[in-house]
Design goal:
The chain has helices at 2-23, 29-47, 53-67, 74-110. With 115 residues, the protein is mainly alpha-helical. It has one domain (2-90). Helix 1 (2-23) runs antiparallel to helix 2 (29-47).
Length: 115
């Protein structure tokens, strides 16, 4: 789950970089600074996914990405797309971890020591 979520956050950081390139001519300096801070927060949050609050912060940042559509209108669509990817990473990651745990429990039940 963590690998998929970290990949989504990293790609969102790159997306924010491209959004800043689009917004550089029409946005105010405050909006550009906010975009840069968001890009850095996406990278930092990818590293915080080991902790419980990392996923909460990542979810909040998804809403911030969509809200950046006020500066660059295409971000509404891209933010929505990445929100779907974020939710998919969490759901599929949990499902994969459950399957892995079941396989480990079955292996331990059968007494097999091989990995």
């Amino acid at each position: 789950m963590r690998v998929m979520a970290a990949a989504v956050l990293t790609m969102e950081s790159l997306l924010m970089g491209f959004a800043l390139l689009i917004a550089k001519d029409s946005a105010t300096s405050t909006q550009l600074i906010l975009g840069g801070v968001l890009a850095l927060l996406f990278i930092l949050t990818a590293g915080l996914l080991k902790r419980a609050g990392g996923y909460l912060l990542g979810s909040i940042l998804q809403l911030c990405l969509i809200a950046y559509g006020l500066v660059v209108s295409q971000m509404y669509y891209m933010g929505g797309l990445f929100l779907i990817l974020w939710i998919s990473a969490i759901v599929l990651g949990r499902r994969g971890e459950a399957i892995k745990a079941a396989l480990i429990a079955q292996r331990d039940k059968n007494g097999s020591k091989s990995p």
